[in-house]
Design brief:
The complex is a heterodimer of chains A (115) and B (108).
Chain A: E1 3-6, E2 10-12, E3 18-25, E4 34-39, E5 45-51, E6 58-60, E7 68-73, E8 78-83, E9 92-98, E10 109-113
Chain B: E1 9-12, E2 18-23, E3 33-37, E4 44-47, E5 61-66, E6 69-74, E7 83-91, E8 96-99, E9 103-107
Parallel strand pairs in B: 1-9
Antiparallel strand pairs in B: 2-6, 3-4, 3-7, 5-6, 7-8, 7-9
């Protein structure tokens, strides 16, 4: 079954880091990249960046550069997104989506940032 | 950076056609994707490359794009079409994907 399964909800304090995973299945992992998109409560969608399946290409949105790292693990067909120095406005649901036209999405991972 | 502008809400009666617009500078020169998002769910691609539909998406969903406005049309609207709709383009000047702010479709 073609799907993206994301890790569970996270709670962090301001200044901490969070690492969200996105396990892929049902298709050739190295053939497609993964984009990360976040959505703050009641707000719209925001693209954070993408990574190719073989990690050969990585692009981060300008506003996240220096604070985000995307990696892959080809042994488990999993993509990771780590966001550092968390602030209250990083509280959001983080989605992974197959980069081939965003045709497949994970269910999202809620990240709460609170002291 | 490139900005996409969507009206915050659109209302339509069942069976009529809903038109959701996405404005951007010379957006007609770009390729537009459209997503549907229902409450508590992940977005779903409904139109890609301006006019194509993924498998499983009804023919009632169609897209067009010209000048400074792209449009998602939903014909014979059903209650189940109630959702937020987002447009998206690739901004080659910044090498980033850009989303519109979203339009809430209400079926009266």
């Amino acid at each position: 079954q073609v799907q993206l399964v994301q890790s569970g909800p996270e709670v962090r304090t301001p200044g901490a880091s969070v690492k969200v995973s996105c396990k892929t299945s049902g298709y050739s992992f190295t053939k497609y990249g993964i984009s990360w998109v976040r959505q703050a409560p009641g707000q719209g969608l925001e693209w954070m960046g993408w990574i190719s399946g073989d990690s050969g290409n990585i692009e981060y949105a300008r506003r996240f550069q220096g604070r985000v790292t995307m990696t892959t693990d080809t042994s488990t067909n999993t993509v990771y997104m780590e966001l550092r120095s968390l602030k209250s406005d990083d509280m959001a649901t983080y989605y992974c989506a197959r980069a081939s036209g965003f045709d497949l999405w994970g269910r999202g991972t809620r990240v709460t940032v609170s002291s | 950076s490139y900005v996409l502008t969507q009206s915050s809400s659109v209302s339509v009666a069942p069976g009529r056609t809903a038109r959701i617009t996405c404005g951007g500078n010379k957006i007609g020169d770009k390729t537009v994707n459209w997503f549907q998002q229902k409450p508590g769910q992940a977005p779903v691609l409904v139109v890609y490359d301006e006019t194509d539909r993924p498998s499983g998406i009804p023919e009632r969903f169609s897209g067009s794009n010209s000048g400074n406005t792209a449009t998602l049309a939903i014909s014979r609207v059903e209650v189940g079409d109630e959702a937020d709709y987002y447009c998206q383009v690739w901004d080659s000047s910044s090498d980033e994907w850009v989303f519109g702010g979203g339009t809430k479709l209400t079926v009266l």
